[in-house]
Design goal:
- The chain has 15 helices and twelve strands.
- A six-stranded parallel beta sheet has the order 2-1-3-4-5-11, with helices on both faces. Strands 7-6-8-9-10-12 form a six-stranded mixed beta sheet, sandwiched between helices.
- By secondary structure, it is an alpha/beta fold.
- The longest helix has 20 residues, at 302-321.
Amino acid sequence: MTETASRPTLEAVAARAGVSRATASRVVNGGDGVREPLVERVRRAVEELGYVPNQAARSLVTRRHDAVAVVIAEPETRVFADPFFALQLRGISKELTAHDSQLVLLLTEGRDDHARVGRYLAGGHVDGALVFSLHLDDPLPQLIHGAGVPTVFGGRPGWGDGARRAVYVDSDNRGGAREAVRHLVGLGRTRVAHITGALDQTSAVDRLDGFRDVMGDDDPRLVVEGDFTPAGGERAMRELLERCPDVDAVFAANDLTASGALRVLRERGRRVPDDVAVIGFDDMLPVAEQTDPPLTTVRQDIEEMGRLMARLLLRDLDRRTGEQGADGGPAGVVLPTTLVRRVSA
């Protein structure tokens, strides 16, 4: 007997529960209109028989695949090296698992991958998409829009034409940056510098704007562009010390950047925080608590951002499945940030 032939069928579930096949189908597929005693009988029969619904048949009934694409607009070398992505994926995975939905991870190395992702999403394999780490010139938003799949973005989208409504989850990047820089100024630091993130991403732009809200832009030498990586932090810190040897504080765009800056300061014999105070952004514990010295940083709840992205998408999908329309949800949710003080500032 083959494995397929030995599997219990929906008809067997209905017979065991003493209900019609249609009733068993409604219970298994989450439909309404079945009295609770019958629901319990069907669920008991499912458990006793070890029945597993046929996903293709279930999709015909529910119009759902119970799968969500998570699209990260970064190469895999960056994704698997940066704890930020692990935290966000953990939040997404927890929320999807709680709703019995699968996560399908899609990464982009180059333009060919963008087209591949667009084709996959347009092919009807998933119910929706969660997209983050977008860059300003990224074609993914337009491809996803063309695919017609419900989408939630991680981070404020960079387009400002008003033509595309975007649901997104972000942190208060600008406000968090302001708080960090005000803290440095409150410590009596007068030569406060900023190592930015990649400025083709809105989070980096918002954090730079927060820095300028406090410090202005009178001395452009005090701003050096980084790329959210430790190596970028090292390179930018070396450039900053060459430009401004008297710098006495650094606000780094994220914790990884700050960790690179700290290494260079240690190499150059600059004491932290005595000579140079340093603040990061993210509060990723595997980084912030392990730097030398431990890093003062701006905390954003990265895992909660992931959970909320998934929650908003699933809520949208429920509205669509229930034929209630997809509008009415929040266009953007911005989570608060807090300054976490450790030794570096």
